[in-house]
Amino acid sequence: MEALSDCTGGIVEALNVNVYGNGTQAMVLAHGYGTDQTLWQYLIPYFACYFKVVVFDLVFSPNVNPSLYDLKRYSNFNGYVQDLLCLLDQLNLNKTIYLGHSMSAMIGCMAATKRPELFEHLILLNGSPRYLNDKGYNGGFRRAEVDTLFREMDKNFPSWVHSFAPVAVGVNCTAAIAQFRCSLGRMKPKTALSVARTVFLSDLRWVLPQVQVPCTIIQSRKDVIVPQPVAFYMKRKLRGHVGLEILKTEGHFPQLTAFPLLLKVVERVLSIGG
């Protein structure tokens, strides 16, 4: 299969798109690094009562044909953004509710600057425009720390996965740790390292002022991957209507470890339910 270098009709099949529910408005759920669409397993049944719920796998997922992951194309976020725009076009979707977790939060922001008509509301879950600290900016990591992370991944990927998963999940939730450890561990080590470099070395702060679509930032109270100050930074820099919700939970994956709490917040933000 050819790489996803243009907006081919096969992207829906290539990225394993699944659609649940038959609402008139689409809700797109986009996962982050080291996971796949099963990350949304607890939210889909509820959202499907109100929306046409669209889930898919990002190109680095082990569920996707590995030949589609092109090192150059995905060396920055632009390849992922183009994939998302193509996918929405192929499904003839616009005015979507977009819920992007982790790196997919910024994928959604970038896509919305290019094609704002495709998005009615962006929900940015534990996302970050920059993971490295900078002058006047607390991204959560020093460069030496991410360099050590890269070395550990390269030296012994299975060992790194085993130790990193519980740290990222952030709470003692056996099922969530096992799920993240499994999905992350199924990635090809070279692909995992390539994506990690793209994510942890990115600086997308310049994107935020260009986003005109209404946004809601949802952030765990404590997250070792994305510290709380990042959420307040994003709120200051995003333009237009921006909401911020701090979840009274810990960890990078509230959709797995605190999904009833997350559902209540999204329900309130979108004025659904009863």
TrEMBL record:
Gene Ontology MF: a single term: hydrolase activity
One Pfam family in the UniProt entry: Abhydrolase_1
Keywords: Hydrolase
Keyword Hydrolase among UniProt keywords: yes
SUPFAM superfamilies per the UniProt record, alphabetical: alpha/beta-Hydrolases (SSF53474)
Domain AB hydrolase-1: residue ranges: 26-129
InterPro entries noted in UniProt: AB_hydrolase_1, AB_hydrolase_fold
Domain of life of the native organism: Eukaryota
PANTHER family per UniProt: ESTERASE-RELATED
Similarity field: Belongs to the AB hydrolase superfamily.
Protein name (database record): AB hydrolase-1 domain-containing protein
Organism of this sequence: Morella rubra (Chinese bayberry)
